[in-house]
Amino acid sequence: xxxxxxxxxxxxxxxxxxxxxxxxxxxxxxxxxxxxxxxxxxxxxxxxxxxxxxxxxxxxxxxxxxxxxxxxxxxxxxxxxxxxxxxxxxxxxxxxxxxxxxxxxxxxxxxxxxxxxxxxxxxxxxxxxxxxxxxxxxxxxxxxxxxxxxxxxxxxxxxxxxxxxxxxxxxxxxxxxxxxxxxxxxxxxxxxxxxxxxxxxxxxxxxxxxxxxxxxxxxxxxxxxxxxxxxxxxxxxxxxxxxxxxxxxxxxxxxxxxxxxxxxxxxxxxxxxxxxxxxxxxxxxxxxxx
Length: 290
Ligand code: 7PJ
Known about the structure:
By secondary structure, this protein is α/β, with parallel strands linked by helices. The chain is 40% helix and 17% strand. It contains ten helices and twelve strands. The radius of gyration is 18 Å and the shape is globular. The two termini are 30 Å apart. Ligand 7PJ binds at residues 28, 37, 75, 109, 128, 130, 150, 152, 198, 200-201, 228, 230, 234, 273.
């Protein structure tokens, strides 16, 4: 027996188990009318169209999505805060429909305790919080729900986060922050194997910061928690390629594969949060075959 720790290769998600022996794909379902990256493709005239939601999610699942991530708050740079009621109204009815229709794993992209609670009641399996459970009552609420949580790093808040982000050592600071948030979760009785970590690409970071964090993925993988990685269509890709948001598919898929390689090469495990499920999955299948 050796006692070298390796990162878990599965995640208990309520009643379901997510296989992490290979990278899992999380498909993004944006329920915000002002989403910057997909133009809110489930909307008709600024209203969520239930039929579009069902067909979009059905396609993502057929294309190989392991998880569907629902979000009702826009966190793009400069986005305005949303009220609790508005967020509930955007997310909960849709989630109820989805859990009634699909046997998939659903995560709720929210920082709001009321939304976490109602989403769990509606059948959500994972709490994905870009504020790492820092809002009042968020930590206690998530701990009570007993679902896995994703703790993400963000410097500042969406409204101002891209104004002038600064770090001494971005990787060290992100790791320190996530370590502290993780400890708070453990102190409230959460299980270590229910905690996912996410460096938060694009959340209060310049291109140079994002690239440093990308190169730090093997180091992050050594924290022995599954990593959640969201690179899809983000501005770092736009900056590298000088490409608008509708022209970032190849960059996004390339980065997803390189992230998978970096993390699994360090014996970690990963969930890749993507808009383009089919293309990402095809690239992953090629990578795995090789
Ligand atoms: C992320 C997210 C991410 C996690 C968004 C966008 C902005 N949740 N929610 N990680 N990004 N955990 O998709 O561009 O990177 S919304």
